[in-house]
Design goal:
seven-stranded parallel beta sheet; alpha/beta; Rossmann fold; 13 strands; single chain; 394 residues; six-stranded parallel beta sheet
Length: 394
């Protein structure tokens, strides 16, 4: 007998997955009145009524070396979650990103007759392309955020839907620098650099000091420059403040913000950003940027051998070329980063051309993401469940 309530299990592994899933839940709730959502998630999902069995931060580890340190805890969470879901099966399982955690769960669900959707295509176009066969065995459908991804799945006969990116729907097409500076009380004439060293504690451990020393280098050459540093959590703020103390950067005008990453980027002239979702946010806000990244040496050596593309930043991947500079691992020095930032600041023509490329990317990704994703997920529900839900909605 079909349950009167549609039950949707979701696993979102970090801050970006929490954001994606929260928009999806909001849209699905309108289409499936009374549906319940549970699993692994973050505060934004909880704000939509999601029942958090485990917090998403438990899965937010970076690279192979770091994952090994947390292997037993993460493996235990997955085993407990699997047992709980199989004991009382949901109507559908949605894995949001976190493929190394989710694909095994999705395969198990699919084998037990539970539709499984993977939301956010793993980056098979960048490295570990052989994973596509594992994905095909695990999922009922892939929801792809980027326009070049569906063809890869279609060639392998794997159901896929292009749904665009929610950030492209959320963020404005037009330049918001003036209003952002007014909001933050900043002069329209002062040089402003936004520094985004990452949202994970492991990223702060690798990049905070480098970003601070980069600011020190710029301050020596441009004493009136201001540096905005949005930090998402108390833990990352503490890590950054500790790095500030080590660097003895008291003379440098570095302003720490609790959150407000979009406002900081909009108010800035140039952004220095750790590779990840924040690079896409900077691109959608039409900000010239320099991308930096460092990870454990062992993780980096493995990833470098398996990579296919000459760049790692999402803006460059989407543009199909080096639109903005990247400095990875040993090349991510304060001297290199400071010079690249100053070069961009000095060349208004290049900055304008970068803005034009980013506007085209924005238009490509603006697809009414949550609506398309929700529609694709409804199509994956068992027919009896879908019909019952439709009747309840009417």
């Amino acid at each position: 007998m079909t349950s009167e309530v549609v039950r949707i299990a979701i696993v979102a592994g970090e801050a970006s997955g929490d954001l994606l899933a929260s928009h999806l839940i909001q849209t699905l709730k309108a289409k499936l009145p009374g549906a319940v959502f549970y699993g692994i998630g973050g505060p934004k999902m909880a704000g939509q009524g999601f029942d958090v069995w485990y917090p998403s931060e438990k899965l937010a580890v970076l690279g192979y070396a770091e994952a090994l340190k947390h292997y037993f805890e993460i493996s235990s969470i997955r085993s407990k979650l699997k047992r709980r879901l199989l004991a009382d099966p949901p109507d559908i399982f949605i894995g949001v990103d976190a493929p190394d955690f989710n694909l095994a769960l999705e395969k198990c669900m699919k084998q037990h007759g539970i539709p499984s959707v993977h939301y956010v295509s793993p980056s098979i176009w960048a490295w570990r392309g052989q994973r596509i066969h594992k994905i095909g065995a695990a999922v009922s459908r892939v929801l792809a955020l980027f326009p070049f991804e569906p063809v890869l799945y279609e060639k392998q006969g794997i159901p896929v839907s292009y749904v665009g990116h929610p950030l492209a729907d959320m963020l404005p097409l037009e330049d918001g620098r003036k209003s952002a500076r007014e909001l933050l009380g900043l002069s329209s004439q002062r040089p402003v650099f936004a520094l985004l060293p990452g949202s994970r504690q492991s990223e702060l451990n690798n990049l905070a000091e480098i970003f601070i020393r980069t600011a020190c280098e710029i301050h020596r050459k441009m004493p009136n420059a201001l540096f905005l540093v949005p930090l998402a959590t108390r833990e990352t703020r503490l890590l950054f403040e500790t790095a500030l103390y080590r660097c003895d950067a008291r003379e440098v005008p570095i302003s720490l913000l609790f959150g407000h990453a979009h406002e900081a980027m909009m108010a800035s002239d140039i952004v220095l950003v750790a590779s990840g979702t924040a690079t896409l946010e900077a691109a959608l806000l039409k900000r010239p940027m320099v991308i930096a990244y460092k990870m454990a040496p062992f993780s980096y050596r493995l990833m470098r051998r398996m990579g296919y593309l000459p760049y790692i930043g999402l803006p460059n991947i989407l543009a199909g070329g080096f639109v903005v500079p990247e400095f990875i691992q040993d090349d991510a020095t304060p001297e290199n980063l400071a010079q690249a930032l100053l070069n961009l600041y000095a060349d208004k023509g290049i900055c304008a051309r970068i803005g034009e490329v980013f506007r085209e990317i924005h238009l490509q990704l603006r697809q009414n993401n949550a609506e398309k994703a929700a529609t694709a997920i409804l199509d994956c529900l068992p027919v009896a469940v879908r019909n019952h839900a439709s009747a309840a909605a009417d």
